[in-house]
Each structure stands twice: as structure tokens, then as C-alpha cells.
Amino acid sequence: HYIVEPVYYYIVAGTSFIIPYALKIIPNVLAALLVVAVYFLAYNLSKNTTASLFSAALAGFIPVYFINYNSISVDTFFIPLLIFILYLFTREDQKQPYLLLVLIGVAVVTSPLSIVLGIGLLIYFLLLKIERVNYKNHEVEIMLFFVMLALWIDSLLYKNALIMHGLGIIW
Predict the structure, then answer these.
(1) Which of 67, 91, 143, 164 has the most other CB atoms within 10 Å of its CB?
(2) pTM of this prediction?
(3) pLDDT of 70-80, one tens digit each?
């Protein structure tokens, strides 16, 4: 049997009572939000409007949206969420990371791909350490919180699969 994290499906089902065509509207709105999120992330990293617009234009053609066009898929929710998390994580003026922590919590209970983001953040901080770039302590705390929360939640959700398949589940 399949093991899924049903949070996204519950959100879509709840909104379908309010908006009759939510099953068609929500994936398309999330695809449009991805373009906006990529623009903000690219502008935050490069401070170049042309590069940000080009990145946002390329984000509109991500293949996962063409595969899952007009269907309910966790990927259509998780990819914009991942980009918004990266944008909030890379902002320099972040004094109160409450929105970031809420989005991290939503990402962890939405998709097991959150572990991939956690590994990417670990590699990012390893590269910062190697290059001797200064970083803030709260960034390290948020990253470690994210990695530990993702490992804990996913080990709880996929405990039976891990016991049945062992480490062979990774391959």
C-alpha cells in the first residue's frame, strides 16, 4: 500500500467546498506563484532585474507542471513553497523568522522532498564554512531545526516502510 502525506489534499478538499473549481484553479495559481517566487529569489541573490526576469521566465516552463497539468499533485504545491523558503532564508534583513518557520513546518508535513532541501542547506553551510564566509547564528539554528524536523517527521510517517525495506529504500 502507498504512504502519502495528505496535508495538501486536505487543503484542496477544504477549499473545494468554497470554490467549486478549486481542483482546476489551485494548481494553476501555484504555478503562477512559482514565477513570482523565482523572481524574488533571483533578485535577492543577484540584485539584477534582467537576470531575475529571465529566471522567472524559465521557471514558467518547469516540466513537472506540464506533466501534472490540471491535476492535483503535491509537487505543484511543494515547488513554489520550496522557492519561497529559499527566498526567506536568503533575505539579509530577516529579524523575525516566524513566516519562515511556519513555511518550514508546512513543507515538512507536505512532502518527503523536504529532506532534499535539508541536505541542500547542509551543503550550502558546508560551502560557507569552507570559503570562510560570515553567517548568522540564527541561520544555522533554523537550518538545523529544519533538518531535524524533516528527519523526525519523515521517520515517523515512513517508519513501517523503513523497517520493511531497510536502507535499501534510499537506492
Answers:
(1) 143
(2) 0.82
(3) 667 788 888 88
